[in-house]
């Protein structure tokens, strides 16, 4: 049983953003500070990656742990109400993510997923981006 009414829950859920989230902005800022230049949310690519590095054919997704079901993460907890709906919703998200990654790889793109919980550690994100994109920011 939900602790708030259906209309209030709908308003809250409607405020959740898909783009320009705090973790995404952290990753974008770090990539830019490291000297890497990128494009945002290229809709013509499968999954509309959050950061696209066309010159090196690399993309970065910044996934929310809850919505994209980060395995083993405390932020990917199970909801207590409307369980059947959420189970189906989360399964569809995970399937869609896997398909987007496979499609991108099939088109010759390298992919990296940075999770919301990882974005809380800027040093970790910076090292992952540097290792993934190469040391030089001259892309």
From TrEMBL:
Keywords from the UniProt entry: DNA damage, DNA repair, Endonuclease, Hydrolase, Nuclease
GO molecular function ontology, one term from the record: endonuclease activity
Top-level division of the source organism's lineage: Bacteria
EC numbers, comma separated: 3.1.-.-
Record family assignment: Belongs to the vsr family.
Role played: May nick specific sequences that contain T:G mispairs resulting from m5C-deamination.
The name this protein goes by in its record: Very short patch repair endonuclease
Source species taxonomy: Bacteria, Pseudomonadati, Pseudomonadota, Gammaproteobacteria, Lysobacterales
